[in-house]
Every structure is written in C-alpha cells, then in structure tokens.
Design brief:
There is one protein chain. The chain has 169 residues and is α+β, with helices and mostly antiparallel strands. The protein has one domain: NADH Oxidase, CATH 3.40.109.10. Helix content is 33%, strand content 18%. Helix 2 packs antiparallel against helix 5. The protein is globular, with a radius of gyration of 17 Å. It binds flavin mononucleotide. Flavin mononucleotide binds next to strand 3.
C-alpha cells in the first residue's frame, strides 16, 4: 500500500524527536509539488521549541494537539512570487499540493501528521504572523503538526463508486 492509502490525520504523538534528515525530506517533498506556471511561492518555518508549539496549539479550537507534536511546519506563500492577480488565483491549489506532499512524505518516514487549517482564516493568519514575526508580504497558509504516532493506525477506506461518472455526468 502506498502512502496515499496509509495516510490519515494523526493527532496524538509519542514523546520522541523527529530526526533532522527526516524533517529536511518533508520540506523537500513540499517543494516538489506542482504549481501553476511553476510559481513555487513557498517558504517554511520549522517549529520544534515546546513554547512555540504551545503558541500554535492556541491558534484555534482545533489545534490543541500541536503542543504534543515533535514539530510543526508552517507553510507560507510570498505575495511577490505572483506576477499578477491572474497567477494569484492558483495560490491555494499550489499551497495545498505542497501541504499534501508533506503529509504523504510523513507517512513514508513512519511519521503521523495533521493539517491545521490556517489560510484564509484572517484571525489565524494574523495570529501566526504576529507570534512568529512573519514579515509583510509573507502569508501563513497551513500548519502541519508532525510526530511519531502514539498508536498504530489504519486509514479508513473512503472509496465510493457512486461518485464516479464516465464520459459525461
Ligand atoms: C484545509 C484543511 C484544514 C484542516 N484543519 C484541521 C484542523 O484545524 N484541526 C484538525 O484537527 N484537523 C484539521 N484538518 C484535518 C481534517 O479534519 C481531516 O483531514 C478529515 O477529518 C479527514 O480525516 P483524515 O485526514 O484522517 O482522512 C484539516 C484538513 C484540511 C484539508
């Protein structure tokens, strides 16, 4: 089974560090994503410090478990990567592909991860911007909480044949 079918959101983690080589491969996987017009608009903040993980855990009512993660990766996009508005419309797809690549690489590395929704929630975006001293023009897109899964897990099978249409709807 490949990473796509093994992946599920993991929210409880072992108290164990993730090796730096693995962290580098996670970010490398993110940077390997396809982007419209090959924009590659991303930057990343790696967060390992416990007090910074706690800050992320307070970003929203749905991010509490980040405080027990080994690390979080904040994905960011640079506004000036986009030539014009027409290019910018693809940003969310570019950054989602990047985020998903990191989630899948985490599975390959024996890690568990969960995507914490950030952009376009202004409150969360501004909160991270202030807490992590992110300059103007660089915008947080997602946070991925990562660690060794506390328990063995199995992904749900979400396949549903009725959603598939052939040739026309
Ligand atoms: C854009 C986006 C935002 C999400 N935000 C959160 C979040 O803030 N907190 C959380 O626990 N899970 C979050 N998730 C994970 C979803 O809850 C999860 O993917 C969904 O329940 C399906 O479960 P699975 O990932 O195990 O297949 C988010 C997922 C996406 C794609």
């Amino acid at each position: 089974m490949n990473a796509i079918f093994k992946r599920k959101s993991i929210r409880t983690f072992k108290d164990k560090d993730v090796e730096d080589e693995k962290i580098e491969r996670l970010v490398k996987a993110g940077m390997q994503a396809p982007t419209a017009l090959d924009t590659q608009p991303w930057e990343f903040i790696i967060v390992k410090d416990k007090s910074n993980l706690k800050i992320i855990s307070e970003m929203s009512p749905y991010s509490g478990f980040a405080k027990n993660a080994a690390l979080c990766i904040i994905t960011l996009f640079k506004l000036n990567s986009f030539r014009d508005r027409e290019t910018f419309v693809w940003m969310q797809q570019d950054m989602s592909a990047c985020t998903e690549n990191i989630l899948l690489q985490a599975v390959d590395e024996g890690l568990g991860a969960v995507w914490l929704g950030t952009y376009p929630d202004d409150e969360r975006v501004n909160y991270l911007g202030q807490q992590f001293e992110i300059p103007n023009g660089i915008i947080p897109f997602s946070v991925i909480a990562i660690g060794y899964p506390k328990e063995d897990y199995q992904a749900d099978d979400k396949f549903d044949k009725s959603r598939i249409h052939y040739e026309s709807y």
